[in-house]
Amino acid sequence: MKILIVGGGGREHAIAWKLAKSPKVEKLYCAPGNAGIAEVAECVNIGVMEFDKLVAFAKEHEIDLTVVAPDDPLAAGAVDAFEAAGLRAFGPRANAAILEGSKAFSKDLMKKYGIPTAAYETFNDPEKALAYLETAKMPIVLKADGLALGKGVLICKDLEEAKAGVKTLMMDKQFGSAGDEIVIEEFMTGREVSVLSFVDGKTIKIMTSAQDHKRAKDGDQGLNTGGMGTFSPSPFYTPEVDAFCKEHIYQKTVDAMKAEGREFKGIIFFGLMLTADGPKVLEYNARFGDPETQVVLPRMKNDLVDLFEACIDGTLDQIELEFEDNAAVCVVLASAGYPEHYEKGFEIRGLENFRDKEGYYVFHAGSKFDDQGRVVTNGGRVLGVTATGSNLKEARANAYKATEWIDFDNKYMRHDIGHAIDEA
């Protein structure tokens, strides 16, 4: 098979790395890709939102399957564009990707179908939102309705902060039109757990659990980011939690989307909060998480091609998902100043240290080749250093050891990824 991956971050590198292991894959392309992805796929200079160019490329190169990985092209209808051209594509159509594309839609869906989530109200008028806050219990959570690179969620500890948040989202438009409508919801307390799943429209298969670290600084301080590191599995995702979610959340979500005429085929990422009242849905994503993918795929035994095809063909019930009985930890190496202002273009040294080292991986999130052919930094999140181990503590020790093999100017990372493991 010839496969085209749409995207150019750490998640796409992990997908490309996994697909490259399949005996069914003859040739991999990635648009636009990055310097790390270039080791396993031919990178093509086409942007993720250039649907006409992507479709034309797929036709010209006789691509058998296109994998659309990021949220923006999915919400905008990339899969629809490929299908309209008679091409096979993995990922939800636009009418199903709304599960992530609109927080208001997903909250209303959960309310309608009795899927446990936080109490909420939606607003498209900032004055009404501000008036509501006067009577609301603090702390409180504000969410931009649309896509905001995983950063459109504000946790406000008091009324003053909440009012400032409404101004940031709805008046100052920090995330553009994503903040035209906002969801204001109750603040839930508990452990956060991420669970990825494959869905073929009717059947859902749950992958292993993971846990993300969103804040920029140690001790869960600082600004929200796209994710500073992850570990898998989560020790807090117990068999009891799994049984509850299977009965009250997972299949109900798939069935709800089908009942709404929005059949979902692709990846549903469940962001869960394990509250005192049981697990509740924090949010849905309609694609692989980043950096969750970097710890989930190295543990997966299955051929990823088989799963992508089964989701498209509606034959997922015939596949048994299997994972290694081990653990994985990913530590993100970022540019100092991320997620705000940071410099790019610094040479990345030490990548060769990962070659032929079993259980150690470096997934590129923001890298490129410079004019001299050197691999240089090209983003806020630069690399995801991932390592496996027989248990979480060993995997964490291995991952942090591996972060020392790589260096670049302004290298920054959190030093407490997986700290929750110690409390488990």
From TrEMBL:
Sequence ranges assigned to domain ATP-grasp in this UniProt record: 107-316
Reaction(s) catalysed by this chain's protein: 5-phospho-beta-D-ribosylamine + glycine + ATP = N(1)-(5-phospho-beta-D-ribosyl)glycinamide + ADP + phosphate + H(+)
SUPFAM superfamilies, sorted: Glutathione synthetase ATP-binding domain-like, PreATP-grasp domain, Rudiment single hybrid motif
Pathway assigned in UniProt: Purine metabolism; IMP biosynthesis via de novo pathway; N(1)-(5-phospho-D-ribosyl)glycinamide from 5-phospho-alpha-D-ribose 1-diphosphate: step 2/2
Database matches in InterPro entries: ATP-grasp, ATP_grasp_subdomain_1, PreATP-grasp_dom_sf, PRibGlycinamid_synth_ATP-grasp, PRibGlycinamide_synth, PRibGlycinamide_synth_C-dom, PRibGlycinamide_synth_C_sf, PRibGlycinamide_synth_CS
Cofactor(s) required, per the database record: Mn(2+); Mg(2+)
SMART domains: GARS_A, GARS_C
EC number assigned by the record: 6.3.4.13
GO terms for MF: phosphoribosylamine-glycine ligase activity
Keywords: ATP-binding, Ligase, Nucleotide-binding, Purine biosynthesis
Protein family: Belongs to the GARS family.
PANTHER family named among the record's database cross-references: PHOSPHORIBOSYLAMINE--GLYCINE LIGASE (PTHR43472), PHOSPHORIBOSYLAMINE--GLYCINE LIGASE, CHLOROPLASTIC (PTHR43472:SF1)
Protein name per its UniProtKB record: Phosphoribosylamine--glycine ligase
Gene that specifies this protein: purD
